[in-house]
Write a structure and sequence with these properties.
Number of domains: 2
Shape: globular
Order of helices and strands: HHEHEHEHEHEEEEEHHHEEEHHEH
Oligomer: single chain
Helix content: 25-40%
CATH topology of the largest domain: Aspartate Aminotransferase, domain 2
Radius of gyration: 21 Å
Low-confidence stretches: none
Distance between the termini: 25 Å
Structural class: alpha/beta
Number of helices: 12
Strand content: 5-15%
Length: 388
């Protein structure tokens, strides 16, 4: 059994991939070929935005989005401590300060009520209102933006986040890698912030077979700026370099592969939703497990099917059972970001973000991909439900 099954997916679209690759080799434009523009147009339409800018990776997408807002030293960027490190590390790379905000206990996403408290604490420079970096930097910090990460396939509560952002004049960047294909109150993930960013990492719901990323926005000026940043800061005429930039261009082979995958992506999202529903039906009665929560008006792309156990001991026992049966399971995330060594200089402490720290000891994920069979799910559920 596989945790993620890319081989079955590849077999389904192999002929289309080969045909698209053949086209790239024939025209020979291996960077920013016509496939890149075609992909941008197709995904902008799918996500319901005016502009999409392809790039070389998800990290570059976040980097360019933050650079387009002039993020740098002295800026406070509010974000979650319970996610993959990739997006948040860019904040540090730019010299800005990540100000962590605990997660909603039901959705695992950034908690808007806690977000309001964190922003107020920075504005008033008062760590008694909410845990802030203890390195002394708060005295020189100014609230700048919100970096919301859609975890495990579920979009964050963007209406509530937008309300906080509006009160404090903050931008909102949505990191929608795990939620691409999900919906929030009739709007697609990637369209829910001022800029949406995705990584096309192979394991993502909409993933390439290598690196790739994209930024989404309705702001034409922002799209032009991001495009310039990703092409070494080029101006509109192509000869002048008018700002610092990076080589963030997407290669044509990845775009060609993603165009092939786009034809089956809606079907794969539907399959993921069916698999998640069956998992929940199998596991809902287990008193040692909490199954995932999806709010009304929201759908999940089901990047992960994440479960919470009653205790770390229960998690260890369940992981052992699965391992003995050669069933893969993973922990996301075993250590919250505020306790990671790379952010040690911020001097956050254990206990600052109780929900994230608690869940790190009790969460684990079981196999989730569109080609998981009901028989495999039954085997997983049988082992997890054998708790007496």
């Amino acid at each position: 059994m596989k945790f993620i099954d890319l081989q079955s997916q590849q077999a389904k679209i192999q002929e289309k991939i080969q045909s698209n690759f053949k086209r790239v080799f024939e025209h020979g434009q291996f960077v920013l070929g016509p496939e890149v523009g075609e992909l941008e147009e197709k995904l902008a339409l799918y996500c319901g935005v005016q502009h999409a800018v392809a790039c070389s990776s998800g990290n570059d997408a976040v980097l360019m989005a933050l650079m387009s807002h002039g993020v740098g030293p002295g800026d406070a960027i509010f974000t979650t401590p319970f996610s993959d490190i990739a997006a948040v590390s860019i904040v540090k790379i730019l010299g800005a300060t990540p100000v962590f905000v605990d997660i909603d206990p039901f959705t695992f996403n950034i908690d808007p009520e806690q977000l309001e408290k964190a922003v107020e604490a920075v504005v008033k420079r008062d760590a008694s209102l909410y845990p802030l970096p203890g390195d002394g930097s708060v005295a020189g910090l100014a609230p700048k933006g919100i970096l919301a990460v859609d975890l495990f396939g579920l979009p964050a509560d963007y209406d509530a986040i937008a309300a906080v952002a509006g009160r404090h004049r903050l931008f909102v960047i949505e990191v929608a890698t795990e939620a691409c294909g999900a919906e929030y109150k009739g709007r697609r993930a990637c369209s829910l912030g001022d800029i949406g960013c995705v990584s096309f990492a192979p394991e993502a719901p909409f993933g390439a077979y290598g690196n790739g990323g994209m930024c989404f926005t309705d702001d034409e000026g922002c799209a032009d700026l991001i495009r310039s940043i990703g092409r070494h800061g080029r101006g509109k005429d192509g000869d002048d370099h008018v700002r610092p930039g990076i080589d963030g261009r997407m290669n044509s082979l990845q775009a060609a592969m993603l165009l092939a995958k786009s034809e089956i992506f809606p079907e794969e999202i539907a399959l993921r939703q069916g698999i998640a529903g069956l998992y929940t039906r199998f596991l809902d009665g287990n008193p040692l497990l909490v199954t995932p929560y999806v709010p009304d008006g929201v759908t999940s792309a089901w990047f992960r099917y994440a479960l919470l156990t009653e205790s770390d001991e229960d998690r260890s026992n369940m992981l052992k059972k699965l391992g003995e049966a050669d069933i893969p399971a993973e922990i996301h995330y075993a250590r919250p970001l505020h306790l990671q060594p790379v952010f040690g200089g911020l001097r956050y402490r254990e206990g600052d973000f109780a929900v994230s720290e608690d869940y790190a000891t009790r969460i684990f994920s079981v196999p989730m991909h569109p080609y998981l069979t009901s028989k495999d799910q039954e085997e997983i559920a049988y082992l997890l439900n054998d708790w007496e």
